[in-house]
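User: Structure tokens for this complex, please. No commentary.
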Amino acid sequence: MNVLVTGGAGYIGSHTVLCLLNEGYHVIVLDNLCNSSVEAIKRVEQLTQQSVTFIEGDVCNKQHLENVFTKHKVDCVIHFAALKAVGESALQPLKYHHNNVSGSINLLSCMAKHQVNQFIFSSSATVYGEQNPYPYIETMPLGTPSSPYGTTKMIVERVLEDNNKANVDFKAISLRYFNPIGAHPSGEIGEDPSGIPNNLLPFVAQVAVGKREKLTVFGDDYPTPDGTCLRDYLHVMDLAEGHVAALNWLKQQTTLDEVAVFNLGTGTGTSVLNIIRAFETETGKPVPYEVANRREGDLPAFWANADKAKQVLKWQAKRDINAMMQDTWRWQSNNPDGYSK
Ligand code: NAD
Ligand code: WQD
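Assistant:
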């Protein structure tokens, strides 16, 4: 079975490509490398001793897509390609809507033309918005996301629902990720943010490796046990395996009456301070930090109800916070400058 993975050179995509290859899938990666390096694909090939068909191209470019679908027989698409910087999306919303929404519509249109009907979408817990109480469960209505980035994820989920109603052959899954962290245990592939990291773990790791002086903890006056926010941190290898479980399930379904939605999370929340402590304990590296004001748009706490994925996909996260810290550190310390060294 041939799987087209858009954004497959990125953080979650590269780990998923590795798991797909190990499961015997043939993988074609389409990535414009706007936030990644082809080195990630080379390392995946080394780790798996298998080859990937890599195409440098853009989902916003209809001709690039047409070339891929004309040249390759595609059975299923896993669509990671997107811009994901929450803060930037507030400053440049049109860039995000163009890339994430228009890019997805181009891709779905090209799939329809070439009668490719299996689709797995990288959605996010952010689609639950501020209104829904945690833990988030898939039966809750879509909320109002706190950023244009989140809005793009919500819109694409809705586009998939409409496309599903109009085409009986179309089978789609929206996977709502919580907070993926960690790296492949080899330390060969991992998260390689460009510039100043937006997310907690890459920042912690860069402080520990000496690239940044200290971490800023955004607020310690939240109504949580230690005053810092709680999130559902999930090992990226568990998340990658979740995609394989989703694909294995999707191909067994003859039809889907509606888009299948699954939370991919652990079902527990961990505070920012507990992350810092766990990182220090597991790595022996101090993480100096200072507490500052809250970051706009941050919710005090959320985590997943992860029962549906367990029951239906037979998937559950199995790696703990300690493994997440060890693997983050192995990647960061082996590759202090990411893939560019
Ligand atoms: P990433 O930036 O590492 O990967 C995205 C990849 O898509 C990159 O390789 C980038 O070059 C590529 N890309 C972007 N726009 C493209 C385009 N127009 N055409 C072709 N390639 C393009 O990000 P990631 O963390 O691996 O995230 C993957 C997906 O998961 C994204 O859709 C993201 O929104 C979603 N997601 C991520 C998180 C997270 O915390 N990392 C959480 C929830 C959802
Ligand atoms: C986690 C916690 C911060 C950095 C984001 C997106 C979400 C999803 C995952 C894509 C929060 C605190 C962080 C720092 C800190 N992405 N923090 N100092 O905001 O839960 O989720 O990534 O879909 O849509 O919003 O993740 O890693 O940015 O923050 O104190 O330097 O760490 O305040 O409590 P977040 P994060």
